[in-house]
Give the backbone structure.
Amino acid sequence: MRLHLLALLARGPAHGYELKQDLEQLLGSAYPQPNVGQIYVTLGRLEKTGLIEGEEVEQSSRPNKKIYHLTDAGREALRTWYEETADEPRVRDEFFMKLALAPRTGLAEQITLINKQRRQYLNTMRNLSKLAAAENRDNRIAQLLIEGAMLHLQADLDWLERCQEELEELE
Amino acid sequence: MSDGPAQVLRAQDLVKTHHGEGAPAHAVRGVDLTLRQGEFVAVTGPSGAGKSTLLHLLGGLTRPDSGSIWLGGECTDAYSEARWAVERRKRIGIVFQFFNLVSNLSVADNVELPALLAGASPRQARTEREELLAELGLVGKERSMPGELSGGEQQRVALARALVNHPPLLLADEPAGSLDSKATREVMRLLSRFHRRGQTIVLVTHDARLASAADRVISFFDGRIADDAELDGTPSRGTGISGVLELKD
């Protein structure tokens, strides 16, 4: 979350609660209720490493709040973030290793494993469809996040199908 | 008989082998299936698994080599082609990947024709057609010819045609297979809407995203049902939806 908060601060100073609201507005129901505690902890760390600076602002009726702004080092970190490409999603995951090792353990049948995993993916896919339908259609960012998750899941499901085709032939 | 919603269709030990050039293709190899009223069932699997053949068997478009189908509790073994054609007008609506509209009839006529053939008066047929086209967002397209419409619009006309006689069962064979993503969403939204009103639907698709709109998913491999799962939207284990959407540090 470090870099997300830096990116939100690039526009101008803000306090922790504002950043939470910014995230909520950006991602809608696709990312419900960012943990405000986590946001404050992350802000503390960013301040310690000199990427942001906080300034206490007195409030008459409420406790003081801290308004953060990006430092030069923070802006540089953000620039580096934008220069790098992101990592690929995982390819060899937990399920794959379970499947690969199943025949040696004698504890599970590969086709059964695939069917069980498919059910879980399909249920998650169904929930994502519902989320997409419930989310405001005009919130493109939220819709794209959900769609991205669905496409990844679809690839996983297609891949399960391939596993099933190949492994059934061996039976 | 067991409890629960009425059976719309039951298939027992269906077998179908295609004899073309080369080795015979065992498209459907012993399928048992019961569809109950109000179910939305997706049949999914790789291409060539035989899922379209299965759908064609269920709609009487192809006859099985062996096995039987009951429609609303009635055995269809002795049905003639003509009888199946009648059933496809009254009890089974079908939509296809490539719409199969009559190209030299207007949109209105394409939808009204099956109603008239099923014995509706011209006035009834017209009323039904008007209601369906309005519902499907096709007002103003009545006099268009199918060739003048986009793929998504043609599929909606095909859906209207399939539903004009209020068949208890709707079969959809890759209905979004030739549509872009926007038209796909529209067709899926409509299928879900008809399902919510009680329409029984069997959807054949290779697309897992479409399949997840159903509440029961049959995985079809190599002519057989490999898995038959009710989707209740709750993953058995794991992080499920939040894990998929989580943004990592």
Remarks:
- Chain A touches chain B at residues 1-2, 4, 30-32, 111, 115-116, 118-131, 145-146, 149-150, 152-154, 157-158, 161-162, 164-165, 168 (CB under 8 Å).
- The first helix of chain A runs from residue 2 to 9.
- Chain A is about 65% helix and 10% strand.
